[in-house]
Design brief:
about 240 residues, alpha+beta, 2 domains, four-stranded antiparallel β-sheet
């Protein structure tokens, strides 16, 4: 799984949060979500089975993920919120439906080629994420994991991360009790570490850790939940000092 992007985009005084991430090779989909006030307004799922079939290269996936994120940020910046809402969170079945659903994205692609008059896509480096919402992906995945009281993570900080795991049931979603939680701290300039926990009857767990005080490179926290043979993952960037 590749580290995703998180960007705040303002339009007409409203701040929208755009999150794009790779769901992993087991579920080869690039998922983009548009939030405001903690509520999901729009989503776009883009399968990348073609990249796997042609011989998977991580670089190609990173480029596609970054491109999708920038185009959706540009669509939000241009005020195309209603079109993004209609885009839906599932890949359409037919080519005609796909063209309709992806219209705001394709329009931003055309504008990006049009020259100076185009609305530029905001830059979205992984390190410059403003993750101030409690992100819970409202999908029909069998298992989902989210963070409560979401906050930016900084090197050297002692933090308590409150985790919630839910599972799909016939009547909707319910807490996933006794789910196994693995929290890994990964970085390019230090050795990885792992912490383990189990959710309570409400599907929640709290893990207290001290983040590595690194000066260079990238780092992230990876949270993995397992229950009833299903797996869900969530990744959050550890922001270098000064960003």
């Amino acid at each position: 799984m590749i580290t995703g992007y998180n960007t705040d985009v303002e339009h007409n005084g409203v701040v929208y949060h755009v999150q794009t991430e790779d769901k992993g090779l087991r579920t080869p989909v690039i998922l983009s979500l548009v939030y405001t006030g903690g509520a999901i307004l729009a989503s776009k799922r883009a399968p990348y089975d073609d990249l796997i079939a042609s011989g998977f290269e991580e670089k190609a996936l990173v480029e596609r993920l970054e491109r999708q994120h920038k185009l959706i940020c540009a669509a939000v910046h241009a005020g195309r919120i209603e079109e993004l809402k209609r885009m839906g969170d599932r890949a359409p079945a037919s080519g005609a439906e796909a063209r309709t659903a992806n219209a705001p994205i394709e329009k931003e692609e055309e504008q990006s080629k049009a020259g100076p008059s185009a609305t530029p896509a905001p830059e979205a480096p992984a390190e410059v994420a403003s993750e101030r919402f409690s992100i819970s992906e409202e999908t029909d995945d069998a298992l989902t994991v989210s963070l409560l009281d979401e906050k930016q993570l900084r090197p050297g900080e002692s933090v308590t991360l409150r985790i919630e795991v839910t599972k799909r049931t016939e009547s909707g979603r319910a807490p996933a009790a006794k789910a196994n939680i693995t929290m890994k701290v990964l970085g390019s300039s230090f050795q990885p570490s792992s912490t383990y926990s189990t959710t309570d009857s409400s599907g929640r767990s709290a893990i207290s850790i001290t983040l590595p005080n690194f000066k260079t490179g990238r780092a992230a926290v990876l949270i993995r939940a397992e229950a009833d043979g299903e797996v869900a993952e969530l990744r959050r960037i550890i922001h270098p000092a000064g960003l």
